[in-house]
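help with these tokens:
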Amino acid sequence: MLQVKNLEISFKNAPPVIQNITFSLQQTEILSIVGESGSGKSVTSLAILGLLPNFAAIKGEVLFNDQNLLTYTNKEFQKIRGSKIGMIFQEPMSSLNPTLSCGFQVSEALQQHTSLSKDEIKEEVISLFKKVKLPRPESIFNSYPHQISGGQKQRVVIAMAIACKPKILIADEPTTALDVTVQKEIILLLKELQEEYKMGIIFISHDLALVSEIADNVIVMHKGKIIEQGKAVDLFIHPKENYTKALINSKPNTKKRFKILPTVTDFINDTVNTSLYSNEERDEFHQKIYNQPPLLEIKNLHKNFISNASWFSKPTVVKAVNNVSFKIYEGETLGLVGESGCGKTTLSRTILQLENASSGEIIYNGVDITKLSKSAFKKLRKEIQIIFQDPFSSLNPRITVGNAILEPMKVHNILSSSKERKEYVYNLLEKVGLKKAHFYRYPHEFSGGQRQRIGIARTIALQPKLIICDESVSALDVSVQAQVLNLLNQLKAEFNFTYIFISHDLSVVKYMADQLVVMNNGRIEEVADADEIYNNPKTNYTKTLIAAVPIGL
């Protein structure tokens, strides 16, 4: 159905970013393309749909129904985009127009490619919303993207992509940064739709465990080349290339805890450290940290939000954090998990005093910080810091990363002179795996993994005691994720940091956490040792979360 032959792509006389790519997609096949960021996965898919910029130099052939798409004009592409070949983009929020209703945006595809009337189109869109299992399809038809959850936005994008029953569906990282339960639902949904419409699907991802649950065949890309391909079962059980082995093994193992997670470089250079963190070592560490007063104690914490009343209804109270209590000890990593909307981020914002608690106590080092004045808490703020999920949006694009790290140090009077601070930042950059020269560069000049390291450097520059990691590795490739997790553990051992580690990825949380808190609808479902909860979950909600984790072949 689709053949890509000897595809080569380059930009502005630079060396080719795609080199001699050849593969084919059969009807009803799910072909997965895997690799790290920059390997060429997305560029290849954009070339198929004619979405690359005009200055891209493209050689080779992309044959669809024996027609070479590389010879198509933009007008000819418009006839097949959406109708014959659909695409689900990685980030639904940026691929949906925030000023238009969800129903209108899906309707546009049907207006473009069918002769249905306005009423028939609305009926078809609501039918599509039901097909992709959206709750309240009539209501979501009139809703705007910001009014629905991330998983629901992704379903709207899927409905848009399949509206005209395309022969080929390209899904570019369609589940990145989604909760494991939503991720599993999306994967099952794609499989159902593929069987119903007899579609061929190109599924692009960096998560090999996830790929193993959906793909028939797999292509592994590295630096613009295909380095390995074959049937999913064979490739996952008997990978031939070290790079493929590295991608499979870079994700934390739920059954054993490596002292240092292996990275791609470790496998390529044959420097994998196989030392395991034993149960005895873990127990000894826990005895040490739990035989001291808690660094932070949350007591019966509530955070309510009140919706605006309308003419015909009373205001409603949303209990975002509902009677939450737990303790965290110095040197500990406390994992905080749960689906989107469970209250994880609101809880962390309340601990940081970015939100005022409705009631309850937040006792830090014996002091209830909810009762502190703004000026008193400002002195304390440098001790409680956060590493954000998206480092790019948390960095000012107009100032160099060195100055971004220096700025909070000046505010909190860390060190006594500008020269001392600058030397300190140089050392910090090297400590997080960057170079002194990076001090003078801007955020856009770095990769996602490097920006996350800059975010970590900025956080630890204030010499905090408690660090909240809010989904700080969720959007990173598995190999980069392994590097950042190793870095966080190394810094924790060196500076005795205490972490609250928020994530939807239970395999990562289990690897990092000593104690685990599971939240659901603002309440705590379970609190216990991370291994104990993972091996013997007590509530149905926790069992569902764990069952949704992709485990690979």
The two ends are 28 Å apart (CA to CA).
